[in-house]
């Protein structure tokens, strides 16, 4: 039978055991802590990022590269199809080429800044007007007029939604050349949206 005296003895024994196993001894037996490893990695990474660059810049790179890649994929599907409309094909080609050039620039910055972890974190996000995999799969199997119409609808939405994130970079980014690139993106994509509206015969819906 346990008595209050026995319970007190058990509590004192547990306290003595915990005191004997100090944090310093735990670190010595377990090796470098995860926190220390992460802090070291962050310190190493931050040394490669320019002093004027901030979290908005890093977030912008991480989110915009996959967003651009999806637009490139959508344009490639249109260009490989039987859609004959020369104006739509020209628009798709310009979107494809322009966003590939921009991705090359952004990926080069990401490599210089050594932000691979940040880029990987955002690479799987479906946000800012991006098309989910199920819709993308359906889109990829369309042909003719259906594909032409769907391309204008999806790409217009794709542009419209991402402009908001791009404006955040213009307003709050710290790295001037990236802010300049974001401003160029807004101008180009706004003009492309107007083209889509003319080709669609109104404002496309999704």
TrEMBL record:
Species, as recorded: Corynebacterium marinum DSM 44953
Keyword match Ribonucleoprotein: no
Top-rank lineage group of the source organism: Bacteria
Keywords, ordered alphabetically: Signal
TM segment ranges: none
Domain DUF305: 57-199
Protein name in UniProt: DUF305 domain-containing protein
Pfam (any one): DUF305
UniProt xrefs under PROSITE patterns: PROKAR_LIPOPROTEIN
Signal peptide: 1-24
InterPro entries: DUF305_CopM-like, Ferritin-like
Entry annotated with the keyword Signal: yes
